Amino acid sequence: MRDANTVFHLAIPARDLDEAFDFYVKKLGCKLARRYHDRITLDFFGDQVVCHLSDQFDEEPQMYPRHFGITFSEKSQFDNLYKLAKQREVTFFRDLSTRFEGLIEEHLTYFLQDPSNNLLEFKYYYDPRMMY
């Protein structure tokens, strides 16, 4: 079972590390942990995302089957990131919407698109039992 000292790790392709840095650090507010000639390591909302320099990335991204992101337990955090992304003119793949309306798993969601076409989904469930 995961505890507070355990961090999830995800590696993703990045066509340009300066673009990745601008998107994740300057626009989303993630913390840069390390930078090497071929990758940057980020504190992505408490977990680790590593952007590896690569020429292999989706030319035409689709939400399914591959995306990643954060499910917020606090609506204010979800709302604050949405406002920040709008203010900083981050590319939205899909703007704010409601999924499964009227069902127990109803939630708010939006998708961002990074410069290497990685898709990031951010969610907030009204019922916290539905987070998993």
Q: Output the number of helix runs.
A: 2
Largest sheet, strands/sense/barrel: 4 strands, mixed
Look at the structure and give the CATH class. Answer: Alpha Beta
**CATH-assigned homologous superfamily:** 2,3-Dihydroxybiphenyl 1,2-Dioxygenase, domain 1
Shape: globular
- Cα(first) to Cα(last) distance is 14 Å
- As a percent range, the share of helical residues equals 10-25%
Tell me what the CATH architecture is: Roll
| Parts with pLDDT < 50 across at least 5 consecutive residues | none
Q: Count every beta strand, where a strand is a DSSP E run of 2 or more residues.
A: 8
* Total domain count: 1
Strand order of the largest sheet: 1-4-3-2
- How do the SSEs run, as a string of H and E? EHEEEEHEEE
The CATH topology annotation reads as 2,3-Dihydroxybiphenyl 1,2-Dioxygenase, domain 1
Domain VOC: 6-125
Protein name: VOC family protein
Pfam family, one: Glyoxalase
Throw out a few tags for this protein.
132 residues; alpha/beta; 2,3-Dihydroxybiphenyl 1,2-Dioxygenase, domain 1; four-stranded mixed beta sheet; globular; Glyas_Fos-R_dOase_dom; Glyas_Bleomycin-R_OHBP_Dase
Describe the protein's architecture and organization.
By secondary structure, the chain is α/β, with parallel strands linked by helices. The chain has a single domain, classed as 2,3-Dihydroxybiphenyl 1,2-Dioxygenase, domain 1 (Roll), CATH 3.10.180.10. 18% of the residues lie in helices and 39% in strands. It has two helices and eight strands, in the order βαββββαβββ. It has helices spanning 17-27, 75-87, and strands at 9-14, 31-36, 39-44, 47-53, 68-72, 92-99, 107-113, 119-125. The strands form two sheets. It has a four-stranded mixed β-sheet with strand order 1-4-3-2, covered by helices on one side. The protein has a four-stranded mixed β-sheet with strand order 5-8-7-6, with helices on one face. A hairpin with a 2-residue loop joins strand 3 and strand 4 (47-53). The longest helix is centred in the middle third of the chain and has 13 residues, at 75-87. The protein is globular. It starts with 8 loop residues before the first strand and ends in a 7-residue tail after the last strand. Residues 6-125 form the VOC domain. This is VOC family protein.
